[in-house]
Amino acid sequence: MLSGMYIHIPFCLNKCNYCDFLSFKSNSDDREKYVEALIKEINMYPKFPLETVYFGGGTPSLLTSEQVHKILSNLNIQHGAEVTLEVNPKTVDLDKFKLFRENGINRVSIGIQSFDDKMLKVLGRLHSSSQGEEAFYLARKAGFDNISLDLMFSLPNQTISDLKADLDKLFSLKPEHFSIYSLIWEEGTDFFSKLEAGIYKETDNDLEASMYELIIEEAKKHGYIHYEISNFCLPGKRAIHNTKYWKNEEYLGIGIGASGYYNNIRYKNVLSISEYYDKISDNLKPILEEEFVDTEEKEIYEYILGLRIIPDGITPKGKYINLCENLLEKGFLLKKDSRYILSQKGVLMANDVFDKFI
Ligand SMILES: C[S@@+](CC[C@H](N)C(=O)[O-])C[C@H]1O[C@@H](n2cnc3c(N)ncnc32)[C@H](O)[C@@H]1O
Ligand code: SF4
């Protein structure tokens, strides 16, 4: 049964130079109005018993703890559920962390991106490296024992030793979990214009691969499990919510631009805030597009998403057994009992492996 919910909070203090997530500036009235609309949307769906709730953004930590509480009190949250909130270091202090915790948040994911002040400026982040670090310590002090940090690599002009310095700092903090994404040059961002203007250039493939290998090696050295392409955790600390996506489980997506998967339909909500409010006030689900997932597509999703969970892999059926055997022969997969998992080579070329299933 469906047991996960993603809630999109589309507000940020400022737009980072690389980011094309759906987010914009807001004032406190905008946020209050949005929370009311979210609650109406939530109440359009059955009250599923939820094992995970994920507030993503944008910057969910711009909400007050009362607003978070109000949203959560409209949900049927199971005992022991994982309730995550994404945090931008510029928006928190010790009291705010404490209040989030008292109001039902038990996991935070802090957007660090880099521990290098010069790089943070290039990225357009409003916080310094020490403010990023401070946010981590404040979350700990407030009692959070499940903290994830978000970083990026393959950044403009970043060298291997810059990355090593970021990793040294990261491991000195010992978060339970971290995500580290290779920069995507998203159209429409300031970074993309600079790329087109020749001010920045993309990291060369060999350097990017060496960076990724360094991350994997260092993470292992520090006791982290590389359990998904961009995600690492201490034993027992996988992100339960995101793991539902990779296991191809259904979940509800709430809020502007959110995606969901419900009753065999993958859907995406409207992208315009005025359209969102119009639909909600008409008592309609604010869905922009829907796609029915048939059995064949469901199976393909299961394999592609399933392979992302590196230690678990997949157990293919039918024609996909031959495909996996072929990928095994070429060294992209390994076999563990009846399961196929990505090899080291497969991890480095994961997108090419996934393409073979389509
Ligand atoms: C929605 S943000 C969450 C945190 C919060 N908004 C913040 O940035 O502090 C999710 C993460 O996606 C990553 N991200 C955003 N844009 C990216 C891009 N163009 N390429 C790679 N990773 C990106 C960043 O690591 C970011 O922390
Ligand atoms: S990276 Fe995070 S803080 Fe920056 S614009 Fe994107 S969502 Fe907002």
Automatic annotation (TrEMBL):
It is found in: Cytoplasm. The keyword Metal-binding applies. Its main location: cytoplasm. This is Heme chaperone HemW. The keyword Heme applies. Residues 1-225 form the Radical SAM core domain. It comes from the Bacteria. SMART domains: Elp3. It comes from Candidatus Cetobacterium colombiensis.
